[in-house]
Amino acid sequence: MYRxxxxxxxxxxxxxxxVEAPYVARKAEPGQFIILRVNEKGERIPLTxxxxxxxxxxxTIIFQKVGKTTKLLGTLEEGDxxxxxxxxxxxxTHLEGVKKAVVIGGGxxxxxxxxxxxxxxxxxxxxxxIAGFRNKDLIILEEELAKVCHRLFITTxxxxxxxxxxxSDILKELLDQGNRYDLAIAIGPLVxxxxxxxxxxxxxxxxxxxxxxxxxxxxxxxxxxxxxVGGTTKFACVDGPDFDGHQVDFDEAIRRQSxxxxxEKRSMEEHECKLGGGNNA
Amino acid sequence: MPNMSPNKVRMPEQEPELRNKNFNEVALGYTxxxxxxxxxxxxxxxxxxxxxxxxxxxxxPDFIKLIAEGKFEEAYWKIRETNNLPAICGRVxxxxxxxxxxxxxARRGEPVGIGRLERFAADWYMANAKENSGKADGKAEKKNxxxxxxxxxxxxxxxxxxLARVGYSVTIFEAFHDAGGVLIYGIPEFRLPKEIxxxxxxxxxxxxxxxxxxxxxxxxxxxxxxxxxxxxxxxIGTGAGLPSFLGIPGENLNGVYSANEFLTRVNLMKAxxxxxxxxxxxxxxxxxxxxxxxxxxxxxxxxxxxxxEKVCIxxxxxxxxxxxRQEEVHHAKEEGIEFKLLTNPIRxxxxxxxxxxxxxCIEMELGEPDSSGRRRxxxxxxxxxxxxxDNVIVAIGQTPNPLIAxxxxxxxxxxxxxxxxxxxxxxxxxxxxxxxxDAVTGAATVILAMGAGKKAAASIDKYLxxxxx
Lengths: 281, 469
Ligand SMILES: Cc1cc2nc3c(=O)[nH]c(=O)nc-3n(C[C@H](O)[C@H](O)[C@H](O)COP(=O)(O)OP(=O)(O)OC[C@H]3O[C@@H](n4cnc5c(N)ncnc54)[C@H](O)[C@@H]3O)c2cc1C
Ligand code: FES
Hints:
The structure holds two protein chains of two kinds.
Chain A: E1 2-11, E2 14-20, H1 22-27, E3 33-37, E4 45-53, E5 58-64, H2 68-75, E6 81-82, E7 84-89, E8 100-106, H3 109-122, E9 126-133, H4 142-147, E10 151-156, E11 163-164, H5 167-176, E12 183-187, H6 190-200, E13 207-210, E14 226-229, E15 232-235, H7 236-239, E16 242-244, H8 250-257, H9 261-280
Parallel strand pairs in A: 8-9, 8-12, 9-10, 10-11, 12-13
Antiparallel strand pairs in A: 1-2, 1-6, 2-5, 3-4, 3-7, 4-5, 13-16, 14-15
Helix pairs in contact in A: 5-6
Chain B: H1 16-19, H2 32-39, H3 49-53, H4 60-68, H5 72-80, H6 86-92, H7 114-129, E1 146-150, H8 154-165, E2 169-173, H9 182-185, H10 194-206, E3 210-212, H11 223-228, E4 231-236, E5 242-243, E6 256-258, H12 259-268, E7 286-290, H13 294-305, E8 310-314, H14 326-334, E9 338-340, E10 343-350, E11 356-369, E12 375-379, E13 385-388, E14 391-394, E15 398-399, E16 433-435, H15 438-441, H16 446-468
Parallel strand pairs in B: 1-2, 1-4, 2-3, 4-16, 6-14, 7-8, 7-14, 8-9
Antiparallel strand pairs in B: 5-15, 10-11, 11-12, 11-13
Helix pairs in contact in B: 2-4, 2-7, 4-5, 4-7, 5-7, 6-7, 8-16, 12-13
Bound molecules: flavin-adenine dinucleotide (FAD) and FE2/S2 (inorganic) cluster.
């Protein structure tokens, strides 16, 4: 069992928890992920390591309420226990030797991009961060991000804060202005990563995207996480989760992501129905 | 007087039309009466070919004699002398190619139902004697020396049990959240109830073996780090978990599963009880399972139970070459699984939205024997055809997972991933590191994995005893 030692609500749908998991904390690196299962009947879901503290033996994860598991996870408080927590899984991101980088985060992806920006910055790279959110209430980690970059650009879809528009609009502007990077890191919704990869392609800017497909084991034994990269099948959990954005078949990944949409809805409905029932009783 | 009936005493089973809609165990087991009657079919012959036919040399005629005499608990302990997991082996061993194959009674009629009797003895013990058995597993004096076992499948469990029994402090490191390996994530409930696996795992824990789950060796800890933590010897029993795909177009369409994923969802994650359990599974009206081993049979029978109207096995060779246990093929047929033999898939066809809608196949014929000794299937020109399906489950084999080999300098493996060991000692290319089971042989059987675990335990004991001097 793994204890939650800290919890922070970042915005109405995004929460942060710090979990006691000494073995994972000892090894974790930016870019890696963990798999957790909240309780006996729960699903195994992958979540990216957002931060770690080797001394305290804790790992921080940030998640958005999207399905039943993340919803349930969000109801846990400091002191509560998570049944299973395994990792660190996947390969760490290679960030050595980068001179100038642009780190692009979309929504929750910003939380996952944060440790990467932090590491790049600490390695001495010049870092621009572009972080996009739907509206101003959903902005997360603004202060933290500001500390690990040279320029921070915030966008909101509705213009309620920062620039109105998408992260890709800013990126395009920066590129048009003549900014050149030796690395772009894009983390967020598949569509966003696809758009960013398409933008950087003509400039030949190496672009790393972080894939987060449906997973079970996270060790390469089921193949459920397979994606097509450069025409060959890869298992995101062991070969990734980072891949070359210019090689990823995003359309296939988007399709595979939707495989259990009906079931996810059903699971959520049952869950809410039960909660409702409990209140009435 | 021996019972000279040419046939085994029939084992009660759930009716096919009933059982193909539930996940309860198919074979219901012998009653005491039936077991004693079947036990009397053993002639207690002088040569005892069955004992040599068993990879762990269970003293078969001896335990059967005890059953015939009604001494069920003694029969159980007789098996346990050489086999740590009798309730499991009685259910899943391929007896027809091992002990029962060489049974003298098989020359005229059916062999003695050795597997059924083994199962009976183990179940009887669990139900009637376990709680207050005067006899327990003897505990040796503690040696205060640590051994790490990686993987909690039959190889790891057996190795750990044997070492604990002679006094080592054994810790099993398991990647999944539950112990048992394929027994828990692969073989379905209706063939091997998970309660039984849990009981057998508990028996091993009672010997003092500690099981740490959620530990992916190679990621969470490396072999070197295990050594630094004071483990003087390491056994690798990580199985063959890497699913093979066909490499044909359309394999990444929605609705295509590896058998591993399909079975893990169903068995380990209990997707058959969705939405009570959170993990979903997608089973359409028509399902094709590619392959004809135990894994394929299990996947097909699960799909049927999950509501598919039509389930077919697609296999490129003929019935004679099918690697599955006879009993499973027989059960699958009874349950309405169709067999499309001498049929090879060449493409998965999809809808505009990217869901599976069909499997394009070509007919095959058998040519000369290939390197496996089986006749090589050859495509028959002009016989392409499409089978309409909503799901495709690929069950064409698994190879060892490279996770440990790729993070352990100096651990030698075969090209296909199997860890290279000395056949006599299970020693790998690294001192103090041993390996066995599917991780060495590639996908094989429970009993062979157990045999390897046993052999490795003996070598580890020898290695550590010598090292101490
Ligand atoms: C669906 C199916 C049906 C089968 N039916 C039969 C049958 O009827 N009869 C029969 O005799 N055989 C059958 N087999 C084969 C049999 O189950 C295997 O041969 C046997 O389980 C191998 O045992 P093992 O201990 O070597 O490995 P496994 O049972 O595969 O166990 C390996 C364990 O190691 C763990 N592991 C892997 N990597 C790591 C790591 N890096 N760190 C920590 N832990 C790790 C795995 O999670 C797993 O729990 C079947 C197999 C399958 C898949
Ligand atoms: S999650 Fe199972 S192979 Fe990647």
